[in-house]
Amino acid sequence: MDWTHMLDPVAASIVIGGTLGATALRSGWADCRAAGAALAALLRPRFRAELVRGGLAPLVAQAGRDGLLRATPRPCGDAAIDAAVAALVQTRSLAAFTARDDAAREARVACAIRAVRTLALGAELSPVFGLAGTLISLSQLPADGLARAAFMGAISMAVLTTLYGVLLGNLVLAPLARAVERRVEAEEAARREVMDWLLAQLAPTCPPTRSVAQPRAWLREA
């Protein structure tokens, strides 16, 4: 098989450009930025619960020994957890701790939902532009006769645009949407494990106000 026959820059530009353009127009730039940020996050190291817990261990030990008022928060490697811990140390309030954590989690999950929705929309649109490319290529057939070269070129482009649309949707965009979803679900579960442990360690140093909400499958419920 000659794989060079599978390459057609014009067909690829029709499918890819049309899919990206239509997705941007239907989703909006904010959702497209969320999708880009989520895809970039896939290339970064995963959230490591054991490393973050290790970074929080000195604070837990100091709070247990000297009290929460004298504890000095240190960066644990996660900005959202650092912000929640700082709110707890400053106010000695479990309500402030959980409120800051809930707000950060809701923002992360909302951004992930927008990213998954955008990628899923692109996966739905790509076969449509594969078909559009097919129609465009067939429209280029000469009206005054079917020269063999022109006929073969139009048919080749028609087939390739359809193929590119199917591959882009089912082998690129849909798997990326699911990868973002899995990554967020796993990281939120790991974050919740760390926050539950931290709350259990620090709760005796300040008056409890309310219990921490149980983990939820946020993406599944959205």
TrEMBL record:
This protein's UniProt keywords: Cell membrane, Membrane, Protein transport, Transmembrane, Transmembrane helix, Transport
InterPro entries membership: MotA-like (IPR047055), MotA_ExbB_proton_chnl (IPR002898)
GO CC annotations on file: plasma membrane
GO biological process: bacterial-type flagellum-dependent swarming motility; chemotaxis; protein transport
Domain of life: Bacteria
Annotated Pfam families: MotA_ExbB (PF01618)
Domain MotA/TolQ/ExbB proton channel, first and last residues per copy: 113-191
Membrane-crossing segments per the record: 118-138, 150-173
Localization in the cell: Cell membrane; Membrane
Keyword presence, Cell membrane: yes
Topology within the bilayer: Multi-pass membrane protein
Similarity comment: family membership: Belongs to the exbB/tolQ family.
Protein name per Swiss-Prot or TrEMBL: MotA/TolQ/ExbB proton channel domain-containing protein
Organism from which the protein derives: Novosphingobium fuchskuhlense
